[in-house]
Amino acid sequence: MKKILLISVVVPFLPVFVFAHGGPMMDFDELQTGPEMMEYLEEGTLGDDVHEEMEQLMVRMMSGKMTEDEGVRISEMMDKYPGPYGMMMNRLSRGGSSWQMMSGWNSMMGWGIVWLWVFILSGFVWLAAGILLFVWLFKKIFSKA
Questions:
Q1: Handedness of CA 76, 44, 59, 65 (dihedral sign)
Q2: How many CB atoms lie within 10 A of CB 124?
Q3: In the chain, where are the structural domains located?
Q4: Whether 66 contacts 60, CB under 8 Å
Q5: Integer distance in angstroms from the first to the last C-alpha of the chain?
Q6: How buried is residue 39: exposed, middle or buried, by Cβ count under 10 Å (0-12/13-18/19+)?
Q7: Among residues 5, 20, 94, 107, which is most buried (max CB within 10 A)?
Q8: 31 CB contacts (<8 Å, ≥6 apart)?
């Protein structure tokens, strides 16, 4: 009887523990796309002044209009801030508005639809497992009475 009670208490809460860390890490309503989120994180890491300077230097570098002094400065910044530099390089090289990595329903046309179906089907599996557990418990409890 103790095993049945333990199973009936623990099993219904398994989905809660499985999806406990699957929720959104940050909730920023104004940030709708991946590039916007990346730029926000870059600014938070570097500060406004350094971020603006690095972004201007990178735009000049990508356009081929960089001077030698600017090249030295961007090299110093790359050494000092490798993480934000890599994020900024990725964001700027792909084009800020055309790259929609985390853009809600726009991503549903690619792998997003696959993950949506995986999520829906896993919900049905948990529902079926819960129903079967309930039926099994019902039979176990009332078959001895």
A1: negative
A2: 9
A3: 1-23+107-145, 33-102
A4: yes
A5: 13
A6: buried
A7: 107
A8: 37, 40
Residue with tokens 């948990």: 126
- The four Cα atoms 101, 103, 108, 111 give a dihedral, to 10 degrees, of 20
Q: Which tens digit of pLDDT belongs to each residue from 81-136? A: 888 888 888 877 775 444 444 445 445 456 667 777 888 999 999 999 999 999 99
Angle (CA) 115-117-123 rounded to 5° is 105
Q: Using a pLDDT cut of 70, give the percent of the chain over it.
A: 66
- If phi > 0 it is left, if psi is from -120 to 50 it is alpha, else beta; for residue 87 that is alpha
Size of the chain, expressed as the number of residues it contains = 145
Q: How far apart are CA 21 and CA 19, in angstroms?
A: 6
